[in-house]
Amino acid sequence: RVPLAADLYHGWRRACVRLAGARSGAALYHEPNYLLMPFDGPSVATIHDLSYLHYPQFHPRERIRRMGKGMPRTLRRAHHLITISEFVRAEVIKLLGVPADKVTAIPLGADESFRARSRDECAPVLRRHGLNGVKYLLTVGTLEPRKNLSGLIAAYGRLPEKIQGEHPLVAVGMKGWLSDALERQIEPLERRGRVRRLGYVSCDDLPFVYAAAHAFAFPSFYEGFGLPPLEAMACGVPVLISNRSSLPEVAGDAALQVDPEDVEAMTRGLERLLNDSDFRARAAQAGPRRAAQFTWERCVDLTVDVYRRVLA
């Protein structure tokens, strides 16, 4: 939060990386998190999204300052850029002016641990988190404004009391930034048992929490890819997403799409997601088929192909 201290820290970090790179004898440097560090050789950077341009109000000020300072330098130095969706690739070309042949979209993947499971298989994990026997609506993500948990809670709060009683909203994710207003919004529903916050859930437990969910909702305003909906679909869980950014590209026709700024539309979508047996049956079949198209093996192969092209 202190600009001078942040500059000193990042300057020290850049010097350490430069020294380590020189000693390593590495042929190529891949920065998987936006901003390139110093390296005397070919460099590749992964751009996950451009939310810092579209929604600066949803980020800490220091992050916006760093991105504004570091991104032009990265664009000048990078021999190639990787984006995690075609949506972000198009934005990088259009908004950042990067030549199309210098940007490759490489989608992420769902780990094999995310798959359909029986309730009995999930029971030990559910007991640890107080969810055994609960037909819950799940959402996963850092508690920050861009994820639109505020809109989801507003839409959920309009559902009939009977539906809320049968399907509490379970939120998995660490507390992020600018979440004070969200805390105030959640508190009344939490007191009534309608919303339950699990906070951080370990990588070992998370696939079971997904697989046992009655449904999954992710009405984010903006995503570079949207890994949580993909993981939910891989588990055969019916999914609702927003009709924005990369999410339709990832989910295809396997998920229900709604306008994240239309609370009434989200409420109608949630009611269908939770109660429409025909849609739920179709989604349980279509989700795993769609998710199977996104694997980490494919992500690795395409990434290595970029390395080869840069080195050639």
In short, what is this structure?
This protein is of the alpha/beta class. The protein is built from 14 helices and ten strands. Helix 8 links the parallel strand 6 and strand 7.
Overall description:
- This protein is α/β, with parallel strands linked by helices and 312 residues long.
- 49% of the residues lie in helices and 12% in strands.
- The chain has 14 helices and ten strands.
- The protein has a six-stranded parallel beta sheet with strand order 7-6-5-8-9-10, sandwiched between helices. Strands 1-2-3-4 form a four-stranded parallel beta sheet, sandwiched between helices.
- Helix 6 (149-157) runs parallel beside helix 8 and helix 6 packs across helix 12 (263-275).
- The longest helix has 22 residues, at 3-24.
- It is globular.
Features:
alpha/beta; six-stranded parallel β-sheet; four-stranded parallel β-sheet; 14 helices; 49% helix; 12% strand
Relative helix content: 40-55%
Structural class: alpha/beta
Number of helices: 14
Low-pLDDT runs of 5+ residues are: none
Mean pLDDT: 94
Please render the helix and strand layout as text.
Elements: H1 3-24, E1 29-31, E2 43-47, H2 51-54, H3 61-77, E3 80-83, H4 86-96, E4 103-105, H5 119-128, E5 137-140, H6 149-157, H7 161-166, E6 169-172, H8 180-191, E7 195-199, H9 206-211, E8 215-218, H10 227-234, E9 239-242, H11 247-251, E10 256-258, H12 263-275, H13 277-291, H14 296-311
